[in-house]
Amino acid sequence: MRRSHILRSVKKRFKCTMDSSVKRMKEGESVIDPKSTVGGGVADVYGEDRATEDQLVTPWTVSVASGYTLLRDPHHNKGLAFTERERDSHYLRGLLPPAVSTQELQEKKLMQSIRNYDVPLHKYMAMMDLEERNERLFYKLLINNVEELLPIVYTPTVGEACQKYGSIFKRPQGLYISLKEKGKILEVLKNWPERSIQVIVVTDGERILGLGDLGCQGMGIPVGKLALYTALGGVRPSACLPITIDVGTNNQKLLDDEFYIGLRQKRATGKEYYDLLEEFMAAVKQNYGEKVLVQFEDFANHNAFELLAKYKTSHLVFNDDIQGTASVVLAGLVASLKLLGGNLADHTFLFFGAGEAGTGIAELIALEISTKTNIPVEEARKKIWLVDSKGLIVSSRKESLQHFKKPWAHDHEPLSTLLDAVKAIKPSALIGTSGVGQTFTKDVVEAMAAINKKPLIMALSNPTTQAECTAEQAYTWTEGRAIFSSGSPFDPYEYNGKTFIPGQANNAYIFPGLGFGLVISGAIRVHDEMLLAASEALANQVTQEHYDKGMIYPPLTNIRKISAHIAANVAAKAYELGLATRLPRPADLVKYAESCMYTPNYRNYR
Ligand code: NAI
């Protein structure tokens, strides 16, 4: 039900007290006394930001929600946590059993019941049910149990959920825009119940995680990513919009499945595809303005690069697979400098795998070196070497290389194996982005250990089976000297009486804070320097205590604090570059970010 319909049926008995509030809401203003907020909460109509935690809010729905309607409204429902007074004033008497609970007790109970499920997909479904029933409790669980629940609401479980999406979902989430809606996309956007959208995550379902084309069932990805935007980054749930663009699927199994929920046709490509995307991007800007962030998620490589290049100069767009990955890996490298010594420019980097991830990360490292040392990017690239399936990328191969590999073709004799490349280039850091497991062999890792006191080894390929080497191999083959991190998580490993905690280069460190920084500054474009700012903020959150355990990323349990720092750094860069529109610039951006963050604590109803 549309919240904009709220105003039509405000009940008589609330009329006097609400008239002024209604008028202010109509004008897009917060119904919370602006003088009593602490700087955050721009137009925080529903009381979602930290700034409103101690204030009385009105539970808006179709009317002032009361009784049965209030219990069925996930934005305002508190279940047994409605107080005696609220039960009286909101006509809840008899609709709830007598016990009055606290949110903490509800959290304890829900976590217990979720832990009772053995199958991760059942935990996922229990979480989704909770989100539909009681949104604040859902986020309370997610925020307070982030390490446990992240693999449930996001990868890997969300992948299975997408595969079975058609059969497990009871109610649609997000917006579906298919070829049927061509010419009507603006109208479709207007059907969404919320007006003040800040972040859209959109997929076309063509490359869902490592699972390939899941067509319309890719919706689980934008839904999951946006849950992380709220839980880890602090963007309000009401400001998040998941979208799936359905141009068909080439997955024959889905096309043959009588329960498939999407368009039953092969994928549209070329002009037909790009015309639909163009209409979508134009409609988004027309409906939500310049400041809405559109995050492209799990598009196939060819479209991902093209869409980013096409829209980055006209829209606020971000691609997590390309830019988020680069930023999180760069953060790990910057953090490891405390252990390795020197600056990035003092080190040499060797990539194994020269695709989307490898070249994207390499380019951001070159940009960081160039920014820090004032040398041209072309010069900075010479510190970085890449190996692909044909061996070291060198200038004699230039003619036959794909365009994105050409900048990395340096002068060197051709070398066909990784081991030869390690021995010749003598890198401080070896980064695996090949997608091929067990390619950092004992010889290769020992060669790294022979060259470096502390060899930096990043085995980024996912899933775990594709990791270039395991944590155990990296630590044992280097006699405990490796600084190791990976794309998929590895358990802590004990070597010679010391416990090492492998770092995980998880994109979830970066995108929620980066997106939140764009939102709170009202940025209108994403600039590469903002990615550098995000990396630096993340690297700065690694403390000596973490380094002592071999970690180059901080624990995810601190993610809200980390995100506030990333957001502040990104916002600062947006102001510096003249790309921020929320003026004047708040003096203390970390405090400002914290005050604007969504908090899931129940509010007291008048
Ligand atoms: P891609 O297909 O674009 O690139 C793969 C590259 O590896 C190509 O340059 C290819 O020539 C090279 N390659 C393949 N087999 C090889 C071999 N036997 N020897 C040498 N080179 C070989 O793939 P993309 O998107 O770059 O992903 C690569 C891997 O990185 C995937 O496993 C992905 O899961 C992982 N990744 C990890 C992330 C993270 O940790 N945060 C984020 C993004 C990707």
Topology:
Blueprint: H1 15-26, H2 67-71, H3 84-89, H4 103-116, H5 120-133, H6 135-144, H7 146-153, H8 157-163, H9 165-168, E1 175-178, H10 185-191, E2 199-203, H11 220-233, E3 240-246, H12 252-256, H13 270-288, E4 293-296, H14 301-311, E5 317-319, H15 320-340, E6 349-352, H16 356-373, H17 377-380, E7 384-388, E8 391-392, H18 418-425, E9 429-432, H19 442-451, E10 456-459, H20 471-477, E11 483-486, E12 493-495, E13 498-500, E14 503-504, H21 511-521, H22 528-540, H23 544-548, H24 559-576, H25 589-596
Parallel strand pairs: 1-3, 2-3, 2-4, 4-5, 6-7, 6-9, 9-10, 10-11, 11-14
Antiparallel strand pairs: 7-8, 12-13
Helix pairs in contact: 5-6, 5-8, 6-7, 6-11, 10-13, 11-21, 15-16, 15-22, 18-19, 21-24, 22-24, 24-25
The structure holds 1,4-dihydronicotinamide adenine dinucleotide.
Overall mean pLDDT: 91
CA-based shape = globular
Count up the helices: 25
The kinds of small molecule bound in this structure are: 1,4-dihydronicotinamide adenine dinucleotide
Distance between the termini: 23 Å
Count the beta strands. Answer: 14
- Give the percentage of residues in beta strands: 5-15%
Strand count, sense and closure of the main sheet? 7 strands, mixed
Task: Decide which structural class fits the backbone.
Answer: alpha/beta
Give the proportion of residues in helices: 40-55%
Widest sheet: strand ordering: 8-7-6-9-10-11-14
Low-confidence stretches: 1-39
What is the gyration radius calculated from CA atoms?
25 Å
